[in-house]
Design goal:
Elements lengths: L5 H15 L3 H11 L4 H16 L1 H9 L11 H16 L5 H15 L2 H17 L10 H8 L4 H23 L6 E4 L7 H9 L4 E4 L6 E6 L6 H4 L3 E3 L6 H6 L5 E5 L6 H9 L4 E7 L2 H13 L5 E5 L14 E7 L13 H5 L2 H18 L3 E11 L8 H10 L3 E3 L15 E2 L2 E4 L1 H4 L4 E8 L1
Parallel strand pairs: 5-6, 5-8, 6-7, 8-9
Antiparallel strand pairs: 1-3, 1-4, 2-3, 9-13, 10-13, 11-12, 12-13
Length: about 450
């Protein structure tokens, strides 16, 4: 059987995402392995898949000006084929336009019939002749941003209410750009960051110091997982915003810590490193296969104090005694609206009602684990979303019902100086546009 080329694999992946709401990152990794994609083609495949999802609203607006029928009436595979072809024509400089049209027509012939391939050919050639349509006909500024920066209209309106026009526009803009790959240096093993940068350079990976977290590096060229430095546990791939959570918790060696929603283990292992592998960390997650990921990370990083368990953290009080932990992390399940750059499918799969639904789970977890904290202990609540309902409102609701807890005003002392202005009475909200990192929320609370 003839091997599929990059665009055919991209079409298959995008179709599964469109039909089954599959996760783009998982599908992409599976497809690269299954189809044995050449290393030099992996970058192009990744860019076509993520870029097409990321720019879907904009691309559909342009297509609607050239396709004679309502886009919803097209066969899904035809619409997806047109989208990924248009993405390459508009956004990728290094792919010749003629090659894109030729590939699209060949794929249309293979999957459909002559009529469909003629329609695909005609649509793409019309766009090349006439150029990209203007967005000036869209009068409503919020609708215009929704199209120009490819975000659902409901989300743009919601952010505009919470953050105002300027911040909303900046969030939407940066969400359409590829995120940086950053990694956390394991300070138990490395004397300093320079040592790790030099070690990676000798393996052909070029990196520099991170911008936000003092134990981070940013990858400029190359990939980490195949390096000896990574395999031997000197590094963990993690966003810089996410690295702030363990610093906020500030766990001390020889203490007892609960990480109630721990998989895949990035924050758990960071806590272990900051404790110098002395004490006890109990890491919980709902799914057995995700708990295995924590165990794998702990083993690679040579951490022995992490004990994992597959369980619902809302039932943690059935496993542990009251007031038995010095500190607790609730890195709660959330809508993920702060990591749209990494997981662009999120913005199309989530609905406004999902935000209210998830807050019920967030509250249940936080309320359930709070009694397990010792007097004087710290509980950190964090999410990778930027919505106030999932963040500040959950914390305020918790404090209103738990008079024995208060916001920890010293949080800003544990975080990088450049975050001081964003720390508000023990709470921190980072937007994706603030430091070119993930959108993240962190709140620190003390038990009186």
């Amino acid at each position: 059987m003839k091997k599929k080329n990059v665009r055919e694999v991209a079409l298959d992946i995008l179709l599964q995402i469109e039909k089954n709401q599959a996760y783009s990152n998982l599908l992409l990794n599976q497809s690269i392995k299954r189809e044995k994609i050449n290393e030099k083609d992996v970058g192009l495949l990744t860019e076509i898949v993520y870029g097409t999802i990321q720019r879907k609203n904009t691309i559909d607006y342009y297509l609607s000006q050239f396709v004679k029928v309502d886009l919803k009436k097209l066969d899904v595979w035809v619409l997806v084929l047109l989208r990924l072809s248009l993405y390459q024509i508009i956004y990728l400089d290094r792919v010749p336009e003629r090659a894109v049209v030729h590939e699209a027509v060949e794929l249309a012939k293979k999957k459909g019939h002559k009529g469909i391939s003629a329609m695909v050919n005609g649509t793409l050639r019309s766009l090349l002749r006439q150029g990209i349509p203007s967005l000036d006909d869209i009068q409503d500024p919020l609708k215009k941003w929704s199209v120009a920066y490819s975000h659902p209209a409901w989300l743009v309106k919601r952010w505009n209410k919470q953050f105002g026009e300027e911040k909303t526009k900046r969030i939407c803009e940066i969400n359409c750009t590829p995120p940086a790959v950053t990694a956390r240096v394991n300070k138990m093993m490395a004397k300093n960051i320079e040592e790790v940068i030099e070690g990676l350079a000798s393996e052909g990976v070029i990196c520099e110091k991170g911008e936000l977290s003092d134990d981070s590096i940013k990858i400029i060229k190359g990939t980490l997982p195949n390096t000896k430095v990574y395999k031997e546990g000197w590094l963990t791939i993690q966003d810089e915003s996410s690295m702030l959570v363990a610093r906020a918790l500030d766990p001390k060696p020889s203490t007892r810590v609960l990480d109630s929603c721990a998989a895949p283990g990035g924050k758990t292992t960071h806590i272990g490193e900051r404790m110098n592998d002395e004490g006890e960390i109990f890491a919980l997650d709902l799914h057995e296969h995700k708990v295995k990921l924590i165990d794998e990370q702990a083993s690679r990083l040579k951490l022995s104090i992490i004990h994992t368990k597959a369980t619902d953290s809302r039932k943690a009080s059935e496993i542990f005694e009251k007031e038995s932990f010095d500190s607790i992390l609730v890195d709660a399940p959330c809508t993920g609206l702060g990591v749209i750059r990494r997981k662009p499918d999120i913005k199309w799969q989530k609905q406004e009602k999902d935000i209210e639904k998830i807050t019920t789970i967030q509250k249940d977890i936080l309320w359930s684990v709070a009694p397990l904290l010792k007097t004087g202990g710290t509980i950190v609540y964090s999410t990778c979303t930027i919505d106030a309902l999932e963040n500040e409102q959950v914390v305020k609701s918790f404090l209103s019902e738990h008079s024995n807890f208060h916001l920890d005003q010293t949080l800003k002392e544990r975080l990088p100086k450049k975050l001081e202005g964003l720390c508000n009475e023990g709470m921190l909200q980072i937007l994706p546009s603030d430091f070119n990192s993930d959108g993240f929320f962190i709140a620190s609370m003390k038990k009186k």
